[in-house]
Amino acid sequence: MPNLGPTELIIIGLILVLLFGAKKLPEAARGLGRSLRIFKAETSKLRDDETETTTATVVQAQPQPPAPAPQQIPPVSATAPEPALSAEEQARRLEEQAAKLRAQAAAPKPQ
User: Fold this and answer.
1) DSSP characters for 8-38?
2) What's this model's pTM, rounded to 2 decimal places?
3) Which three-class secondary structure state does DSSP give residue 92?
4) Mean pLDDT of the chain
5) DSSP letter, residue 71
6) Which residues contact 27 (CB under 8 A, 6 or more apart)?
7) With 49 labelled, which of 58, 63, 93, 94 sits at a CA distance of 20 to 30 A?
8) Cβ neighbours for 88, distance < 8 A, ≥ 6 positions apart
9) Which of 68, 65, 72 has its CA nearest to residue 104?
10) Which residues contact 85 (CB under 8 A, 6 or more apart)?
């Protein structure tokens, strides 16, 4: 990538002032900064989710010991609500519960 000298930067700045106006430039720069921060946060979440997914698939590929007898699910207490969870956390918990239920269903029933 070619280096931009001070002359080129001044010309680019003048063009931006002519296109957007001096009042709109700070607002546009703030919006661009916010957008970049959001983009970086989302891409880091994607990387984190990807590593969690690969770790989870490796763990699930290992043979599981026989599941104990089905347990009673305790009733949900209305007095102690859980803190608000993100959509990713809720999805992860639901997947864990589904995996437990599948393991219990696949376990041979004693007769």
Assistant:
1) HHHHHHHHHHHHH-TTHHHHHHHHHHHHHHH
2) 0.34
3) helix
4) 76
5) P
6) none
7) 63
8) 45, 49
9) 68
10) 93
Distance in angstroms (rounded) separating the CA atoms of residues 69 and 110:
9
Instruction: Kindly state the tokens that stand for 42.
Output: 């989302």
| Contact (Cβ atoms closer than 8 angstroms) between residue 64 and residue 25 | no
- Residue 110 confidence class, pLDDT cut points 50, 70, 90: low
Q: Supply 107's token pair.
A: 């376990």
Pull the structure tokens for residue 78. Answer: 């209305």
Question: Is there a contact between 90 and 51 (Cβ–Cβ < 8 Å)?
Answer: no
Which two tokens mark 70? 């089905």
> In this predicted model, what pLDDT tens digit does every residue of 2-39 receive, in sequence order?
688 889 989 988 888 888 788 888 888 888 899 999 99
Instruction: Give percent above pLDDT 90 in the chain.
Output: 10
Higher pLDDT, 72 or 100: 100
Provide the token pair at 24.
């709109």
Tokens representing 10 are 């001044």
